[in-house]
Amino acid sequence: MGHELRWGLIGASTIAHEWMIDAIRAQPGNAVAAVLSGDRARGEAYAAKHGIAKSCTSLDALLADPGIDAVYISTINELHATQAIAAANAGKHVLCEKPLAMTLDDAHAIVDACRRAGVVLGTNHHLRNAATHLALRQLVRDGAIGRPLYARVFHAVHLPEHLQGWRIAQPSAGAGVILDITVHDVDTLRFILDAEPVEAVAMTPPPSLASEGVDDGVMAVLRFDNDVLVQLHDAFTVAYAGTGIEIHGTAGSLIGRDVMTQRPVGEVIVRDATGERTVPVVHHNLYERSLARFNAAVMSRGVEQPAATGEDGVRSLAAALAVRQAVRSGERTRVQAGL
Questions:
Q1: Coil, strand, or helix at residue 289?
Q2: 103-107, 203-207, 319-323: range with lowest mean pLDDT
Q3: Number of domains in the chain
Q4: Are residues 202 and 227 in the same domain?
């Protein structure tokens, strides 16, 4: 039996349109009750298109609505902290898009506000919900490749024109590939390896799509606390590379092809002394699993946890910020999550 959870959307966003509204409605007892947009006409059109009863232009008005139990925040990155803290103070459960915030201080403030209010906080790192990544995590845990030594993530894509906007032009809003893609890679590796990044080195090329001062590509190397070395290649400017992840260990390798995506696709391959084999994977909607885990956390009053917690959001943000600092300084940079 489902738990009644009525959602307010903070942000009339593309990701809510394409994925999250349907994922919310797929949960028993869940409904989308309202949407917030600073543009009244956009908000009303969005609400009409998606059959949402209420459209707001005021955050205070949305949070004052007793008919809303939880909020999903998908606004530009610089607004996450203010909106999430206000929602917590209003007693609403919070599911926030990544990155959780722009700074570690703000991310910690979100976690603290939700803890004080006794509400559930989740960071919507969707990739850890993929069947492929769940399989990779289990294979590592089962010792399928022995002790992990190295990993590679290739997540260089072409950012669709309709998503470019502030992501390539507004540093103050959290633009750039590091807070958009690298933060996902780090969270996925933290999940699969069950380990934490401790230091980073990184370089970026001159921007070719983004405005001056905004990184639209990066290569980075991170060391994790289990001594696994990780190489990342992220970009907004590569159309045909495909995505994937590799984990190489003392007894074999894991290959995930076409797995760094919102879509429930891709395959997992094991290579070892016996040869190469494909691991059976039953795909599912990543966002529906995220919402199911969030519902379970609400229903259990904190006994269960969201797929990615607020603390996960802090740790993955800390690693992304270390990558960005390593780019700027040209030096090896410590990851300091402060948890």
A1: helix
A2: 203-207
A3: 2
A4: yes
